[in-house]
# Entry
Amino acid sequence: MIDKFVHSMADAMAGISDGSTILLGGFGDVGIPTPLLNGLIEQGARDLTIVVVAGGRDGSAIEQLLSLGRVRKMICSFVRPASLAGRLLQRGELEVEIVPQGTMAERMRAAGAGITGFYTPTGADTLLAEGRETREIGGKLCLLEYPLPGDVALIEAWRADRWGNLLYRDSARNFNPVMAMAATLTIAMTRNVAALGEIAPEEVVTPGIFVHRVLHVPA
Amino acid sequence: MAATEISPLDRNGMAARCARDIPEGWLVNLGIGIPTLVADFVPQEREVIFHAENGVIGVGPAPAADKVNPYLINASTTHVTLRTGGSYVHHADSFAIARGGHLDLCVLGAFEVAENGDIANWARSADEPVKQVGGAMDLAIGAKRLWVVMEHTTKDGESRLRHRCSYPLTAKAVVKRVYTNLAVLDVTPQGFVVLDMIRGLTLDALQAHTEAKLFAHGEGGQR
# Structure
């Protein structure tokens, strides 16, 4: 019987090693798997690369992870100067790679889809393209981008069954499905548990084949 | 502003002026800041579909205080509603919408716009250590039309409408129209063409606040 449910945070986080690249779902405060992030803090892995849309506002679990010195690099689309990430960056204590948000999503999509590189006009005419490979395609200057795979994805779902089929609530979908496909180990937390078959096949957003562990974290 | 008889538009005024020009049926992405206000001035019966890059298609107005859905936000991370007929996509699909030419219109804020359509809206200098690009670059290159809503000048009176941008670019040659607190201008092969000015303003007076060369449109009608 396939059963991807784990029954403790420790089991959910087992085996995440130092130096891992962690894809972290969510946008704003929505769809961020904060309990899993707290689990990661507890678990202790360090020297991490975190891929997340933004640098983490004050009081967030990302900020706590940063303040514990566990993050070597952050790949994100923006960092607020006033945030801890912004201050660490200015002091040279954190490496930050700024990626346009759509490029970030597409690089993860490419990683999950076996695409080894793609050209996009996004950012090609900007200082983000300095020293990088560009070419003109169809009259547009385009920038070569590489996939962005993760060792681990931490994502939040609304409902899940034991095969790991996931459904998201409203705009909490955001990066989560793309990250689920782009990571070697995808760990989902779910607010609700469904019996197998209870989530209609047409409603499954992330098929369980992309999900390795599911932890039930009631709202 | 030397003349006392003119009153520049405020943020809502600029948003309302922009909203007037958005026809029913368009798929529109609104950037953070003044552009977000534009939706408030499109009447509900005019069916414009608003896209938010966090994967919401059919963004509706702000919810009543007791009807907030904590799982439903827009790109500014404020709570919104979903219009009947709306749908959700994940981030890669959401940016496929932006990059893939599916948006009829994107409205962004900016630091500067140049007469060749270049836009600078993400960094004030190349040396700035902390950068905030967000989704602006994807939106700017991908939409069928890019309009900008911004103050005509900086707080120090520097023109934001430039011959060439001085700040790092977000994208080249993409802006089609600019709505400021003083005027509406099209970006044409000739340069900035003034479509509309606030009441009491003359082209000469507008030019005095503008670094880029301005051209009159037709009869230069004032509204």
In short: The first strand of chain A starts at residue 5 and ends at 6.
